[in-house]
């Protein structure tokens, strides 16, 4: 059994969803319930494989790649099918295999107009293959393929099942991310042709040493744009509010919980370990854009009138904390960033679930038209309150560990970085947490407190349904559990971060 996990476990987790999607293609469209339950069964089977991998993972060796598969793939360009899992990718894989079945459970009676559960569920399963594949890939070309697989399914989810401006939002999402991907693949090819002569991510940190400093700076710049647009880092964020606002509920949940993490994961897994000296030169600029994003995102939230758009702009601010932690180039900072990814995925994913359910009940997300949720749907109101408190970073909930360590990491950046600059960033980021409390409490007060508006006063509003409880409860439990026991994540990531060449940066690589 152990040999099977080592040889086939990851491949099964990656490709099981797309095999399920292929099976669904053979089922007539009219059999809507069958499509829903096949998709649910496939996603639960993938979750089962994920739990199997989690149980088989050797946590005492979390810094080592495990379940590695290295097979011939595209020999003409020396690209191989290499996959593996370590403590950096494990939490994000776990997040992915959990989020997808919860989204499908929620969608069992929430498939948006124009319906067609067959196509809707197939796209979600294809997304899952792309997301898991990105987190396990250890070859740059393989990583790029999976990174791009997620593009078309999300484009169609937004463009077909989205809101009134869905086509504009879908095209904007597609063009922005495709532009970043084009620069990213050029950077990968430059690494190969300028001396690395391999796409194996395990060998690239050593193979790239011979590339000139100037070339490394330009290559890192291409990766910076490719990953930064996906994060999205200010000022490349403008596609995100439109995409979130127009996307169907589960599209927003998957986008917030997992897709944005592909960008931050790219920095942690590829750009920084392979090009540490270029990373040291770019880091102050990345940190500057991160703190601008924190403040800008918060101020933009205060200006919003739409609940979903406000939550979307909050993602710009929260991912700013993650990018600030990454820019410190320290093991502590990278650990903080991975925790930030997990916390943001759980909390903001839940907030988008709640926004979708509010829209279903009230047929509007206009903050001025909402009110009295606690009175009309008390369970929904209290869940919303818990998630708002988590998002603003209340101690005892996961959001605190997504922000506080990120701010703390800026106090002691890597030795090659300007200490005064990063401590200034730390102060600005800390101010951003005050703004976050402001816009989230303002949102909650206006939508949940008081009396329902006149137009909804006599309308019966249903509280949380059974399917919503099933879809939401795992996320709510994890938000509290990680808030109380953050070592659930930190104990897995710490050794992996240290062994992922970041210790060399922290001790002064690139100091000259």
The CA-CA distance between the termini, in Å, is: 50 Å
As a percent range, the share of helical residues equals: over 70%
How are the strands of the biggest sheet laid out side by side? 1-2
Overall structural class, as computed from helix and strand content, comes to mainly alpha
Instruction: Describe the largest sheet.
Output: 2 strands, antiparallel
Q: How many structural domains in the coordinates?
A: 1
Secondary structure tally, helices: 20
Order of helices and strands: HHEEHHHHHHHHHHHHHHHHHH
Describe the structure.
With 512 residues, the chain is mostly helical. The protein has one domain. It is 73% helix and 3% strand. The chain is built from 20 helices and 2 strands. Strands 1-2 form a two-stranded antiparallel ribbon. α9 runs antiparallel to α11 and α14 runs antiparallel to α19. The longest helix has 32 residues. It is globular, with a radius of gyration of 22 Å. The C terminus is likely disordered.
In short:
The protein has 512 residues and is mainly alpha-helical.
Write the layout of secondary structure elements.
Elements (H helix, E strand, L loop, with lengths): L1 H24 L6 H25 L9 E9 L4 E7 L4 H18 L9 H20 L3 H10 L1 H11 L4 H31 L7 H4 L5 H18 L8 H8 L2 H26 L1 H27 L4 H21 L3 H32 L10 H4 L1 H14 L6 H12 L9 H30 L17 H19 L2 H20 L6
Antiparallel strand pairs: 1-2
Helix pairs in contact: 1-2, 1-4, 2-3, 2-4, 3-4, 3-11, 3-14, 3-19, 4-5, 4-6, 4-11, 5-7, 6-7, 7-9, 7-10, 9-11, 9-12, 10-13, 11-12, 11-13, 11-14, 12-13, 12-18, 13-14, 13-17, 13-18, 14-16, 14-17, 14-19, 14-20, 16-18, 17-18, 17-19
